[in-house]
Every structure is written in structure tokens, then in C-alpha cells.
Amino acid sequence: MLPDVMLAGGNVGKRPVYIEYRNFLHRHIILSGFPAKVIQATYVQIFTAKIYKLGINPAVDPPNDVLDSLFESAGKDKGPIPVYGTIDGADFTQTLVKFQGKWRLYVNGEMLRASGAKIGHEIRVEIEFDSRPREVSMPARLREALKLDKRAKIAFAELTPSRQKEIFKYINSLRTEASIARNVEKILQQLKGKIVEKPLVVVKAARKKS
Q1: Which of 23, 67, 132, 143 has the most CB atoms less than 10 A away?
Q2: Is 119 left (phi over 0), alpha (psi -120 to 50) or beta?
Q3: pTM of the model
Q4: Which CATH architecture does the domain made up of 6-129 adopt?
């Protein structure tokens, strides 16, 4: 049986790091030395859950005690909450969102590929609040397509920054090159006001205010 508290040490670069473990509900404390003041404290939560399909999206629902710890670390319990961790040992970075009254962790294509998990599988999730700045780069396929389509490029520039980022994230979540190419083409058509079959909700947004 593990003790209530364990202390491990190491280095990040040239800086000593001491990590305090509390019975798998870990409190990670990064110190500048020992003894020294706490620079940053975060809480890692562990749970198991079965992946289910919500609409077209695979997801799991974190338990309430896990959510409470994430809310405490984030300093809020409303709005999207950036998180990171592992699924069956595979790293992920994601955003926890509330949908239809419940908090969901969506398991996108990249997370499924990395972990080898599938819908219906029970997975082991390690998760904690992610305080790092989030940068989302434009997918290469979309960048090249916009270079070749001036009208779509102008329309894309008129989207709000948050909507542009959502489009980037959507494309990055797709699993195959064929799916990426098909959806990039659909995005271009929607940006130009064309009628398409099954239009993507991610493209619909208000334009920037002039």
C-alpha cells in the first residue's frame, strides 16, 4: 500500500523540482529549492470512464470530485476550461466544456489514435488544469487553399479570431488526409457563401466589427 505522502526530486533544466504525491490525487508542487516557496501548484486527477458517442463526437464525463479539483485549480467553474493529461498513457491537450448541462471531455481523433482507444472502451484518464497559453496554428492544407482562393481568404480574414481558432482546431481533429481535404474545400465554399451539403457549424460566425 502506498503511503499518504511521497516526495520525489529531480531537475527541470537547472532548477530542482520536488513533487509531492498524495494517494494518486496528486498535488504537484514545483519548488525553486528546498526549503523554498511554492512557485506553482496543480492537481492531477485520475479516473476511468467508458468512451461514448455524443452526437458524432466521442466523449467521457469526468466525475464530480475530479471536476471540483479542476474548478479549484482553474479558479472558475464556468466557460471552457483548458486541461491536459494522458489517456491510457498517451498525452493529450484538450478543453473541458459544458454541454447539455454536463461537463464533457471530448476525445478527438488525435486522442483516439495516440491512445489506441475506441468508442465503447474504458480508458484511464489523468487530467489537470492547463494554465499554459494556448496557441493554435493554421493547418498547412487550409493555408495553401486560402493562398489560391482570394475571395475565401478575404472572407476568412473577416471572421472573429475565436472563430478562426475553432476552424483550425476542427481541421486538426480530423483523422485522414481525405477528410481534411474534403472539409477544407467545404470551408472555402461556405466562406464564399455557397450552398453546401451538410454545412459545417464551425464556419458560421459573426464578422469582425469594423
Answers
A1: 67
A2: beta
A3: 0.53
A4: Beta Barrel (2.40)
